[in-house]
UniProtKB/TrEMBL annotation:
<feature type="transmembrane region" description="Helical">
    <location>
        <begin position="151"/>
        <end position="179"/>
    </location>
</feature>
<feature type="transmembrane region" description="Helical">
    <location>
        <begin position="191"/>
        <end position="212"/>
    </location>
</feature>
<feature type="transmembrane region" description="Helical">
    <location>
        <begin position="127"/>
        <end position="145"/>
    </location>
</feature>
<keyword id="KW-0812">Transmembrane</keyword>
<protein>
    <recommendedName>
        <fullName>Glycosyltransferase RgtA/B/C/D-like domain-containing protein</fullName>
    </recommendedName>
</protein>
<keyword id="KW-1133">Transmembrane helix</keyword>
<feature type="transmembrane region" description="Helical">
    <location>
        <begin position="295"/>
        <end position="312"/>
    </location>
</feature>
<feature type="transmembrane region" description="Helical">
    <location>
        <begin position="324"/>
        <end position="341"/>
    </location>
</feature>
<feature type="transmembrane region" description="Helical">
    <location>
        <begin position="72"/>
        <end position="95"/>
    </location>
</feature>
<keyword id="KW-0472">Membrane</keyword>
<feature type="transmembrane region" description="Helical">
    <location>
        <begin position="247"/>
        <end position="265"/>
    </location>
</feature>
<feature type="transmembrane region" description="Helical">
    <location>
        <begin position="372"/>
        <end position="391"/>
    </location>
</feature>
Length: 401
């Protein structure tokens, strides 16, 4: 039922909402054209800033579009919705197997009718849903490892995280969680796990770097996301602090490294992580990056969004109320963004075609306006991050198991 509602909601959105899309989608169509002409998107375009997973998906979509005469846009949307279906299935399985099952209504609201996911899959059309899928699989394997302590399960976790890094390098921040039980596994198992973790991205990056070293160095290795549109960098931009974004951009990676090292130091003394500790630690790391990091993009929420319904089942009543209230604020923010921001598609302009509405969208799309519009959402994530740190299941405060 959940999957049927999920697919139906997205089909209705595609059928009845204006056919407007984010700039990212048009970048993907350009990549498909470059590939079709025999070019190298890492050399001939500046839009691919990650390992080649998404380029390979776009290559397949381009070929399928020519074979079937179906629009590449619709095939991209179908691919992302299919990834959502798989994600929802794993999320439901994770909840029903390891946690107190939530009601079907809660799961439908969180997974199937979530406006954030609908907008990101059907209007923005970004591939971060795949990163979130691999991260969810990684969580599933780690939680299973606490149950069976099987080397195969731990190796599966290494592979899932490796594929997540191959999709988008961000999941690398979760690698400290693999240190739990490192001293109790054989050297061979630990080495093989490291190979499974690093080989996918190493091979992928090696191939594209060999073919276009300058483009990969500039657009992938040198990519630092976009600062000044949200959070701390956005507020610095609003305040007119000269050089503030650059200064914070230099500091933020060191803050992330510090929290990763602290996590690794506490995790290494444990035989495995309890399910609640897996969730809270992953959320701390994943929420930290878009909230306090040097750059931001709306699809970043998909890195940890699938984990939230699972975590909700273990949250206290007070934290649940905070999560529901925060969800409403974040969802309203996303609806506003995709209605009014030209870079996101601004679907409101399709309903009200006037110079006044167009001008309003242009004003709201400015970096200072976006930062202010996102301020309530930023505060929600800051409060949620603090709540995660205070959670007693937090592995940073846990002792030996």
């Amino acid at each position: 039922m959940i999957l049927a509602v999920l697919v139906a909601a997205r089909l209705l959105f595609i059928a009845f909402m204006p056919q407007v899309y984010s700039k990212d989608l048009y970048a993907w169509l350009h990549v498909i054209d470059v590939l079709d002409a025999g070019g190298n998107p890492y050399k001939d375009t500046p839009v691919l800033n990650w390992p080649p997973f998404w380029m390979q998906v776009l290559f397949g979509i381009g070929k399928l579009a020519k074979l079937t005469s179906v629009s590449a846009i619709h095939l991209i949307q179908a691919t992302l919705v299919l990834a959502e279906v798989v994600t929802a299935t794993i999320c439901y399985t994770l909840i029903t197997r390891f946690f107190k099952a939530a009601s079907t209504g809660v799961l439908i609201a969180a997974l199937a009718l979530n406006p954030i996911s609908i907008l990101l899959s059907c209007q923005h059309c970004n591939f971060d849903v795949f990163a979130g899928l691999w991260i969810l699989l990684f969580a599933y394997c780690l939680i299973s490892y606490d149950e069976d302590h099987s080397a195969e399960t731990w190796l599966a976790a290494c592979f899932c995280l490796g594929m997540g890094i191959f999709t988008k390098t961000i999941p690398l921040i979760l690698s400290p969680l693999l240190l739990a039980g490192v001293g109790r596994r054989s050297i061979t198992t630990n080495i093989f796990g490291s190979v499974l973790l690093l080989t996918p991205v190493a091979i992928g990056m090696g191939v594209i770097y060999t073919l276009a070293p300058a483009g990969v160095s500039e657009h992938v290795l040198g990519y630092r996301s976009m600062g000044g549109w949200y959070g701390i960098t956005g507020l610095l931009n609003v305040a007119g602090v000269k050089g503030g974004n650059e200064a914070y951009g230099a500091i933020a990676p060191w803050l992330l490294l510090l929290i990763m090292l602290l996590c690794a130091w506490r995790v290494r003394i444990r035989a495995s992580l309890l399910p609640a500790q897996v969730l809270v630690t992953m959320l701390i790391l994943l929420v930290f990056l878009p909230t306090f990091g040097p750059g931001y993009s709306p699809p970043y929420i998909l890195w940890f969004l699938p984990l939230l319904p699972v975590y909700y089942t273990r949250a206290t009543p007070a934290l649940r109320r905070m999560m529901v209230a925060g969800y409403c604020i974040v969802a309203l923010t996303y609806i506003t963004e995709y209605a009014f921001f030209p870079s996101h598609g601004a679907f409101i302009k399709a309903f009200y075609r006037s110079d006044e509405v167009s001008h309003l969208c242009d004003v709201m799309g400015m970096s200072t306006s976006q930062s202010l519009i996102r301020l309530p959402m930023f505060l929600c994530f800051v409060m949620f991050f603090i709540a995660l740190l205070r959670n007693r299941g937090n592995v940073l405060a846990a002792g030996k198991k």
